## 1
Amino acid sequence: MGAIGWEALLKTDAPPECTLVRAFFSTYDRADERLLVEHALPLFLKLGHEPAGDEAERQYFLIELDRRLRQMHDRIVVVSSNAREEPVEQDGGDSAYQWIWRSIRHLTVGSRGRAVQHSKLWLLHWSSPDGPDYLEIVVSSANLTLAALKGQLQSAWRTLITLKPQRSDARLSTWGILPSFVRELAISAGDGQNLDPFLELLARGECPESITFVASVPGVHSRAVLRRTPWGAAGLAKIAPAGNGAAGASITTPYVGSWGAETLRRWCGNFGGTTERLELVWIEKSHPWQRCWLLPKNTLRSLLEAGASILRLGRDPADSDRSDAFHVRHRQADDRWSHAKLYHFRRGNSRRLLVTSANFSMAAWGREDEQGALTIENFELGVSVEQTDWPFEHLEPFDDEKDIATVADLGTRSSPLISWGSATWNGEVIRIECRCGSPSEVSGELRAGGETDPVARWTSVGADGLCRADMQYSGPWLPPFVVELTCRDECLRLPVFDERELEDRENTLLPEVDTALLQALGDQLLFEEYGGRTAAEDPAETADAIDDLAFPEDGDDETPDGSRSESYAVPAFVLARRHLAVVDSWADAVKELSRRQPDDFRRKHLRRDGELLVEAFRRQSERDRTAGPTGALGAGLAAEELAIRLKHFPEC
C-alpha cells in the first residue's frame, strides 16, 4: 500500500475520454442541491459551461445540466437518512435547485423499520469510447454537503476498477460483504431492485488484493447470522492483523458514543485486542475543534478505568509547537476541522488501516448481548487496507485528564415520527408512501408552483405505520413540486420523482431560464454537443449566429467595385458544411454505440437527439433566412439529411 495522500475528494481518476453512465451516492445528511449543481454534477457529467459565469453563461449551464440529467434520468441515485446522530452543519441547500430531483432518484432508509443511513459510498460507472468500462469506488467519511467538502478534513479510499464485458458470480464474491450491504441498503430504502445495476457492476470487476470491506446494517443480528455475514464489530475479525499476542488499535473519530468498561472489552475482543492496547486520539478543552468533537465524560472514565490511552492532538494556528498535522501538507493555518474516521490496527509488524464512516459508537458497531447477538442502529461502510503509515504515531498521552475535552452527555438520539417517505409521479397520479410512528396523525399536501393541494386519503399498508396515498395530478411540473408530510410538529419534504416518458419530460419548464430564449439556447447547445459552434456568449446573439458571413440579397451579385461576383454563395456553403458536420458527428456516435453496445441506454437518447436536431435545424433555417434566402439552405439540407438517416436508424 502506498503512502497516505493529501488531495481533493471531489475528483475522478477515470480517463478523460470517459463519460458517466451511472452513479450512486450515500450520505448521512440529505445532499445539498447547491453542492450537486455547482460542483459535483459539472465535474462528473463533464459539462462545458460554468455555473458561476455571467447571466448568459449561467443560462447555458442550467440548460446543459438539465439536458444531461434528462439523459441520465433515474441513473443517478442518492440515499440519505432522516434520523440524527451527530451535530449537523446545514449549509448549501438551495430550493432554487430542487428541480434536479425530478431526474435524480433520492431515497431515504427506514421503510422496513428504524434505520440511520451513515455510510458514505460513491459508485461511478464510466464508459470509454475505445476502451473498457470502469467502476470508480470511493469510501469516505464525507457527506454530500458543502460544509463537508469545504469546511472539514475527511478520510477517503478510492479505486478505479476495469470492468469485464460479462458478469461473474465468482467476481462478485471477491467483494466480500459489500454486495450484501448494497442489497440491505436498497431494501431499507423501499426498493429492493433499485440498486441492482450497481451489484451487476461489481460482478464485472474484481476487488483489489488485500482489500476487505467492513459494514454495518441496522437490526438485531444473532450469532448464527453474524457467522454468515459478519456485520458491525463482528467484521473486525476479518481485518485483524496477523501474528501472535494481543492486537492494538488506535482510533480517531470526531464523535464517541457511550461506552462502559465491559462493552469496550467486548469490542476489542472482536479483533483479538485488549483495552490496555486501545488508544483514542483526542483534543484538549482549548482546541478549536472542541465544539464539533464529542466525548461523554462517562465514556472517558470507562476508557481510563479499562487502561486505554488518550493521546493529545494539538492544534494552535499561532503556535506550530502545539500543532499536530494529519499530513506533511496539512498547513498550520488550515481552519477545517477533522471529520475523518480512522482505525489503525497493529500486531507485531502487521498493520491494517480502516477508512470508514463509522464513529466510535455502539450505534455504528453494535451492542452485544450475553448471547453474542449484535443490535446495530446505523448503516456504515469502511474499507481496510494494508497500511503501515499512521500520522499520529508521535502523539503523547495527556498529562492531566482534566484537560481532555468532554461533554456531560450526548442527549437523546432523535427518532423522527416520519422515518421514511417517497413520492413519484407518472403524469397522472402522484404515489406517496411513508412510514410514520403515528399514522392516524399524518397529513400531506402537494406544492406545485404557487398552488397547494391536500392529500385527501391515506391507506394503511401492512404494519409498522406504513401509509400510502394516490393523488390525481395531470397538470404541469412546476417548481418546487414537492410533497410536504406533517405529523404533529414534524415536517418532511419529499421531492417528487418524475417517472413520465422522455418526450413528456422534455417540455418541463426550467426555473431561472428566460422562457423566451429557451428554445434558441437549447438548439445552440444541441448543435454544440455534436461538434457545432460553441454557444454564443449572449443569448440574444443566437438569432444572429451567422452575421459574420456576408450573404447578398436577391439580385445583389456585384462586388463593392461594381464587378460581378462569381462566388456570392460561398458563405452559404460554409454554413452548410458546419451544419452537415453536426449531422456527421451524430451519425458517428450512432455507429460507435451500435458497434460497442447494441442495447446501451444511450441509443434511445441518440435517436431522440436526431429527432430534436431535425426540429432544431428547421428552426435554425428560419433564423438564418433573416440574413438572406441563401443563408437558410445549409440548415434545411441538414434537416433533410438527418430525417433520411433517422429512417435507417438501427433498432435493438
## 2
Amino acid sequence: MRQLVIYGVVLAGVLFFEVMRWLDPERRADALAGWFFGRDADFGPWLILLLLAPIVWNLRWRVPGRTLLPVVRGWMTEPHGEANASRWATGLRAAGLTVLVAVVAFASSRAVDAAFGDLPPAYHDEFSYLFQAKTFLAGRVSYPSFEPRPELFDQVHVLNEGRFASRYFPGVGLWIAPFLALGDPQLGHAIAHAMTALLLFWIGRDLAGNGVGLLVGLLFAVSPGMLLFSNLLLAHHPTLVGLALFLFAFLRMRRTLRFRWGLLAGIGLTYAMLCRPMTAAGFGLPFGLWFAWWWMRGGQGEQHRPLVGRSLLALSMAIPLIAGFIGLFAYSKAITGSALVTPYQLYTDVYTPRHVYGFNNVERGEQKLGPKVLENYDRWAENLTPGLAAKNVGVRLRESLRWTLGIVPLVLAAGVLLLSARSCGSTDWRLIAAAILTLHVAHIPYWFEGIMGWHYVLESAPLWILLFAEASRRLVRSWRDDRPWMPLWWGGVIATALALDLLTVTPLWPGRLPVGIAEVSYPRGKYARFYEGVATRVGNGPAVVFVEADPADRHMDYVVNDPSLDGPVLYARYRPEEMDLDEVRELFPDREAWLYRAAGEELIRLPASGN
C-alpha cells in the first residue's frame, strides 16, 4: 500500500509537469522542433517507465538466472548477511569492490578532463585557488602588494591590502599545491573524486552491506554534477574528501565508541572546515547535536559509557578541531593582521560589501562602501529578502536533485525512506537525511543561488546518493519473493537516470553532463583565446598588459598573475576614470606595454617608456 501511494504521487507529479510543458507554446515548439523531452528532460522519459510499472508488477514468470541470486545476494549483504564465507574471502571481496569503485571514479573524472583539453580555468575562484597554491609552494602564506600602485593588480577573489593573498581558506590550496608542482593541478581533484567514491563505498557497506556500498560508490563516480565539479579547481572535491572521512569515521564511532574513530572523524571535519567552513558546519550539525545529546544522557545498553569515557570520546574529536582553529587564526593573523578577521571577511568588507552574508545584504553593504569597491562586480548582488531566499532554496533543491542523479529517482527514493522510516529506519539514516536539510538551511542567508544553481549545497549530493542506495535495498528486498521482475524495473530506473545524465540522444534529450561541459567550455574558451592572442602578439615578454574591463561582462576578468608578480607577462587592471595610462606605464620601464580593451577585444601596443 505504501509503495502504491509513492507511485501514485510521483506519477501524478510527472503527468502534471509534462502536461504543463506541452501546454506552454514556447516549450511545445521547442519539443517539436528540437528536444522532444525538453532541454532538461526531467519528466517525459520517466512517464514511460512509470506507466510500465503496473505491467512489470504483475509479471510472475521465473526470472532467468535465479539460481545464482542467493550467492550474489550473500555477497552483496556482507558483512551484515548470513553468508558463511570466511573473513578472508569477505575482506578480499570488499577490497576488490573498493578498487573497482576508485578506478571507475578516477577514470570517469579524467575522461571529462580530456573533453576540456588544455583550456584554462573558467571561474574567478579557480584562479584564486591556483594563486593560493602557488603561494604555498613558495613557502609563504602571502606576498607583499605592489607598493607603487597596489590597485593595478587587484584580482577577483584575491586580497590586496598590503598583503597579496587569496581570500579563501587554506585547505584547498594545500590540496592543489603538490599536484600543481607536478604540472597537473587537475589530477588532485580526480584523486579527490576517487577517494570520496571509495569512502562512500565503505560508508554504504558499513550501513547496509556490499550492495549498498557498491551502488553508492558507482553512482557517485558517474554522477554528472560530481564529474563536472571534479574538473573545476574549486573547493568542493577537497571538502568532500574531508566530509566523507568524517561521515565514515563518525558512524563507526557511533557503533564502537572508540577513540580512534572519533579522532579520525575530527580530522575529516577539520579539513573540511579549512576548505569550506559554512559547509562543514551545516553538514556536521546533526551529528554534533546527536553527540551532545548522547554525551549528556550517557547512552543506553551497549552505548552506555561513564562520564569520563564520554568526555574522552568528545576530546578525540575536539583535538583536531582545536588544532584547526589555531591554524586558521594564525593564517588570518599573518594576512589580515588580526586572528579574528579572515581574508575572506576582509575581502568582502573592502571589495564586495554588497555580497555580505545575511538578509538585506545590499542595504547593509551600501552603508560600508569604500574607495576600493569592485563596483561592477559588487552591483551584481541582489538584496536578499525572504522571498528571494525561498526562491533560492527551491532552485538549489531542484538543481541539486538534477545534477546528483535526477529529480524523479531521488523523489521516489525519498518517498520510500519516508514511508518506511518507522518500520526499518535507523538513527544513521536519519542523521544523513538531516545533514541535507541543515546544509540547505546554513546557506539560506546568502543572496546567490550558486554556480549552476546549486554549488552551495553540492556536498548534499553524496548524501542523496546514500539515501537512494538504501531505498533501492529496501525496495528490492520487499519485491524479492512476490514481485520477481520489479528489481529489473528498478534497474531500468537507474539506467534511465544515467542515460539522461550522461548521454545526448538526438532529438530526444541533451545529456546533462554534455550540457555542463559545453557551459563550462565557453568561458574557458574565451580565456584561452585571450591568452593565445597575447602570446602571439606579445611573445614571452617581459611585458605588461593593461586590461580595461568590459562593464557588460562582469564574469570574465583577465587580470590574473602569479603572486610573485615576476612573470614574463603581467596583467594589470586599468581604470580609465581613475588612472593616467602614461603615468602607470612609467611604473614598468623594463617591460613592453600593451593595452587590452575587453569590450572590443582590442590589443594595442603602447609607446615605449619616455616617448
## 3
Amino acid sequence: MMETLEDFVSKLNKRAFLPGLQREFVWKEEQIAMLFDSFIRGYPVGQVTLWDIDSAEDNFATYEFIRKYIDGDGRVPRRVRDRDARRYNKRVAIEDIICDYLVIDGQQRLNSAYVGLCGSLFTYSGGSAGSRADERFWSEKVLCINLLGSPEYRDADGLGLAGNYEFEFRGTDTLDPESEIGYEKTSLNDDDIHRLWFPVHEFVTEGGAERETSTVDQEVEQQIENLELSATGPQRRALHRVAQRVVTKFRQNVLGYELPSTTVKYSSQEVHTIFSRINLAGESPQPYQYTQSLLATYCPYTEEDAFHPREKLKSHIETLSDRHPAFETEITRQFLTRCLIYLINEDLLQTTVEAFSKDDEVKAMRNKWIAPDDMGNPHGRFETAIDRGFQTVGNVGLAPKSMPSILLVALLAKFYYENPDAEVNEANERAAFRFVAKSQLLNALTGSQARSMAQSLSDLRPEDGFETFPGDQLLDDLDLHLTAEHVDKAVENARYDNGASDGDTFTHKGVAAILGLLDEGHADLDIERLSVDHIYPKACADDIPPAGPDSDGVKIHRIGNLQLLDAAENRRKGDTLPEEWLNGLGEAEADHYRTVNRYPESITPTLENFQEFVERREAAMKEALKEKYAVSAVEP
C-alpha cells in the first residue's frame, strides 16, 4: 500500500497511534532535517508497518505521537511544560479514541515528520554551567526550509545562493528574544550567500493537511518582496523563481512523498514477536528502550490504581533531578531502567532483555516497581530507594566527576530497596565513600562488575537484612583487592580539577579515592562537613620557586598539596600560607592537623619547601594506603 506523507501525517493522533511496545521517540534535530532532505530528493526511507487492531484483543496500551518534543533528559522549566511540550508519549485510553491502526515499525520517521510539519523541538543550550530549570537556556525551534536553496540555481542573477536543498531547525521568538526565521546573509570565501528560512509548518494546516496553494504562494511572494537586501529588479525576479521552484518541489516531493507501508492483522502476542524480529533484523532499540517497551506494553499493572511506566519515568526524572541537581545529567531513562533491572538480578544487555518473558522478568520488574514505600505512598519504594542512593553520595561531597561510575548509585538504590530499614546515616555515607575510593583505585565498577555486585547484594544479604552498605564484601566477593601498583598509580595521577564549580567537594576521582581512604583521622567529624583544601593556596602558585631549570612549572593541584578540612576551618584558612595558618592555631590543634593530614616531619611548609613537602607527603600517602589496604579488601 502506498500513501503520501501528507496522508500519513494527517491521520496521526486521529486514526493512527502507537502501541506500548514501541520505544520512545529519540531522533535528534539533525536526523529529522536529514529525513526531510531525503523526502525532497526522493530517496527511499524505509517501509511503515501498521497493525490493524480489529483482529486484536483489548489488552494493549495506546499512545499518541509527540507534536512538541523536548530533546534530552533532565529538568524542564514550567514555561516549556506550559506549551504542551513533551518528552514522552502521552497515553490515551482506547475507548476514548477512534483508532484504526497502531504503528509497529516506522515510528521514528513518522514522528519526525509530525514534529517537522506540525510541531517543534525544545532544546537546552546551557551546558554544564547552566541550569536546565532556567528557561533562559531553552529555545523552541521549528523546522525550516531555505526557500533560496535549490540544486538547480547556484545564484540569482549574480546574488550568491546555497545551491542545494537545506533544512534546519531554527529558533523562534517564543522563548528567545529574537527569531532565527527569515532572511539570513552569510559569507563563504568572501562571497555573500543569501538564505530565506521558511517554516515548513506553513505548508500545512494544524491537522497536517496541505494548505491552499494560492495562500502559501502569496505569503512566499510577499516575503521575497520584503527582503531587506540590495537587489536589482532582475535579481529579485530571479529570487522569486528560485523560491517558487523550491515551494513546488516541497509540495510534490515532501508532502506528496509516497511512503510504502504494509498492514498486519495479528494478536497482541504475535505483534510483539513481529516487533522483536523487525528490530533484531534492523536498527535495534537500545536495551533500556526495549525494556521500557515491554513494560509499557503490559500496563496498566494494578486494578485499583493505573500505573503507566512512561508517565512514571517522567515523574521520577523530574522529582530526582529537582532534589539532586548535581546529578541531573545522569538521571536518565537508561539509568532508572538499570536500577529496576538490578532489582531482579539481571543486566541491561541486548541479549538479556530480548529474552525477557512477559510472565517472568517483566512481571517481576512490574511488581518491584509498583511496591509502596514505608510511608504507604503508592509505587514509592523504587523512587525512595534511588533518592536515598543520591542522598548518600551527595552528602559526602561526591559528584559524577569524582565517582568511578553512576552505577554506584544504582547499587546503593538496590541496597536501600532490599533493606528498607537502612538509613542515610554516617555509617552508610562512610561505607559508600570507602567503596567509591577502593573502586577508583582498583579501576573497578565496570558494567559487568556492577551487575555481579547487584547479584551479590541479594546473595550476601543476612536474614534480617543489612544496616550498612557492604561495599568491602562486594569487592571481596569478586576477588578485587588493592595492590601496591594500584596505590602508586592513583597517587601519581590524582589532581584537583581547577575548572570545577564552587559546589564540588571532590573534583577528581583520584582525589576522592585517596583522601577518602586516608580520612580515618577525621572520624570525629560529620563526613558532610569535610571539604578539600589546598595546603599551599592556589593564589600563591606564582610565588613558589620552580623545582629546577627543566621543570614544567609548579603543580599546585597535585594530591600532595591537598588535604581534608572541616568546611568552616577551610573558609577561615582561605589563602593563608600553611606555616602562617598553623602558627595561628593552638598547639594541640596544629599538631592534630599535621598528624591526620600526614604532614612530613622535620620540614616547615614554607614556599621554598613546597616541592620537598608534597613529594614526601605523597610518599607517606602511598605507604599508609599500602600498609592499610594493599593485598586485602576486607575490613581492617
